[in-house]
Design brief:
The complex is a heterodimer.
Chain A: E1 2-12, E2 15-25, E3 30-34, H1 41-49, E4 56-61, E5 64-68, E6 73-74, E7 82-85, H2 97-104, H3 111-120, H4 136-148, E8 154-158, H5 166-182, E9 186-190, H6 194-200, E10 203-208, E11 211-216, H7 218-223, E12 230-243, E13 246-253, E14 256-262, H8 264-267, E15 275-281
Parallel strand pairs in A: 3-9, 3-10, 7-8, 8-9
Antiparallel strand pairs in A: 1-2, 1-4, 4-5, 5-6, 10-11, 12-13, 12-15, 13-14
Helix pairs in contact in A: 2-4, 4-5
Chain B: H1 4-33, H2 39-51, H3 54-65, H4 70-79, H5 87-112, H6 115-123, H7 128-136, H8 141-156, H9 160-166, H10 176-185, H11 189-214, H12 217-222
Helix pairs in contact in B: 1-5, 1-8, 1-10, 2-5, 3-9, 5-8, 5-9, 6-7, 8-11, 10-11
Subcellular location (chain B): Cell membrane
Membrane topology (chain B): Multi-pass membrane protein
InterPro entries (chain B): MetI-like, MetI-like_sf, ModB_ABC
Chain lengths: ~290, ~220
């Protein structure tokens, strides 16, 4: 059980940001902080890990007080049992993959645990290679494995999958779910990807301007308001072409290019680069199993 | 040819570099990470030897270390060290004179590392000292090498400071650069030339090694 209540004023990209959070997380949960960049998600993780000082607040994890500004308690990051996967992975470039894992161990007794992690994360083949020679996905797996070596109470993941392509992302999501369950972790994930959130987490906090504006299960947060019988996707117009009597508008939705037929009247105010909403009635789309 | 000045030069450079390395690491660490208001002042002081004529530095050392004044007297009385016209004095002056050449590369090396490396190590329960020695320093080896070699080479090339505070005592403070000056004064050009040529050759080789190592040429060659 994590009780996390902090205030902090930050110099954000959009001016002053007042982070004001009060979140309770049950042990064993995998929760996501969701929100636009600059909403204070990363700062919240850093405060929880002790890497950033809060102006005021109280953090209690499993009954032990990590931070209590009114009683001047502020546990050092070294003493908080936190596993952290950084956005840039923070692998030590001078050490091999295995040495990176060993560096995280506190004593020699958990040799077998490292071996187990190597196996679960499928790192056997790259054990003796240095981070510079690894692919993005391998680095990610190594960083994830390294953050668990110490058996942390909380695992914090700062947009760990943002830099990976979709296939790799799906693979790592599976690993993440596996270790979360295997090691009884309480995990906090920062993510932008609604699909990923839906797949991994059981609770979402939506942050806006440093405050939680919405919380609940991913379905409650993301899908309830959309049960209008329509598909709606936001996208960018890439191309507008005339074909016979109609116009074909190519729209980029996430990573997919979609062609939409439009009438002349519809494209009148449309230019390349515009953000558009592509919507469809529910009886129209075709559903097909692909996996 | 008398080899004494050359041996003394390299002895001075070696001792200075070793001590400077130990001293410069905490200073560089502080300069790289501190947000203290005093930082610009310390940064300026460290960089002063870059712009100040060595004779100015030497002059103030001479005044400060002289047994005739309070500080020099105190050192002489309590520690029994005579700093003026002695090898110890030369080492101390050289350390201060070459300080920016060691501190600057290490400081910029540390600043260029991603802060998450340090933070990751802290979260693994490692202390600041352990993090510095096991994570930060091994990842700035080129900066360390640059600092060591530049300090060494700069100390070899020292003249003004040595002349002011060390004088010209054979075997004690008469280093190669002073010996060259001495020989030229005595119109003994061939001796001056041998000293000069040796210094030229050695410093060229030292710097060449740095560029070869830091540029990765050696690694490519051995592959």
């Amino acid at each position: 059980m994590i009780a996390f209540q902090v205030r902090k004023s930050l110099e954000g990209p959009n001016g002053l940001l007042n982070l004001d959070l009060n979140i309770q997380i049950e042990a064993g949960d995998l929760v996501t902080l969701y929100g636009a960049s600059g909403a204070g998600k990363t700062s919240a993780l850093r405060i929880l890990a002790g890497l950033m000082k809060a102006n005021s607040g109280r953090i209690v994890v499993d009954g032990s007080i990590w931070l209590d500004t009114s009683n001047k308690i502020d546990m050092k990051p070294q003493e908080r049992q936190v596993g952290f996967v950084f956005q840039d992975y923070a692998l030590f470039p001078h050490l091999t993959a295995l040495q990176n894992l060993e560096f995280a161990s506190t004593d020699s007794t958990n040799k077998s645990q490292i071996a187990e992690l190597v196996e679960i994360m499928e790192l056997e083949k790259i054990q003796n290679r240095k981070p510079a020679t690894l692919s993005g996905g391998q680095r990610q797996r190594l960083a994830l494995a390294r953050s668990i070596v110490q058996r942390p109470k909380i695992l914090l993941l700062d947009e760990p999958l943002a830099a990976l392509d979709i296939t790799m992302r799906l693979k790592i999501q599976t690993y993440l779910k596996k270790v979360h369950e295997r090691y009884n972790l309480t995990t906090i994930l920062v993510s932008h990807d609604i699909g990923e959130i839906h797949k991994l987490s059981n609770r979402v906090y939506v942050l806006e301007e440093g405050k939680v504006v919405k919380q609940g299960t991913p379905t409650e947060v993301f899908f309830n308001q959309k049960l209008s019988g329509k598909f709606k996707f936001k996208g960018n117009v890439l191309k507008i072409e005339k074909e016979d009597v109609v116009y074909v508008v190519t729209v980029l939705i996430h990573n997919e290019m979609v062609k939409v037929i439009a009438q002349e009247s519809e494209i009148k105010n449309l230019n390349v680069g515009d953000v558009v909403l592509v919507a469809s009635k529910a009886f129209n789309p075709i559903i097909q199993k692909i996996k | 040819m008398n080899w004494e000045p050359l041996i003394l030069t390299f002895k001075l450079a070696a001792v200075t570099t070793i001590l400077l390395f130990v001293i410069a690491i905490p200073i560089s660490y502080w300069l790289a990470y501190s947000k203290a208001k005093l930082k610009p002042i310390l940064e300026t002081l460290v960089s002063m030897p870059l712009v100040l004529p060595p004779t100015v530095l030497g002059f103030y050392f001479l005044i400060a270390f002289s047994p005739n004044n309070a500080f020099g007297n105190w050192i002489n009385e309590t520690l029994g060290i005579q700093l003026v016209f002695s090898f110890t004095g030369l080492v101390l002056a050289s350390i201060i004179y070459s300080l920016p050449f060691m501190v600057h590369p290490i400081q910029s090396g540390l600043s260029s590392l991603s802060p998450s490396l340090k933070e990751a190590s802290y979260l693994m329960g490692k202390s600041k000292t352990k993090t510095l020695i096991q994570v930060l320093l091994p990842n700035i080896k080129p900066s360390l090498l640059t600092g060591i070699v530049l300090s060494f080479a700069h100390t070899v090339g020292e003249f003004g400071v040595v002349l002011m505070i060390g004088g010209n005592i054979p075997g004690k403070t008469k280093v190669a650069s002073i010996a060259i000056y001495d020989e030229v004064e005595a119109l003994n050009y061939s001796a001056a030339n041998s000293y000069s040529l040796i210094l030229f050759g050695i410093t060229f080789c030292i710097l060449l090694v740095v560029y070869l190592v830091n540029g990765g040429y050696l690694k490519r060659f051995t592959k």
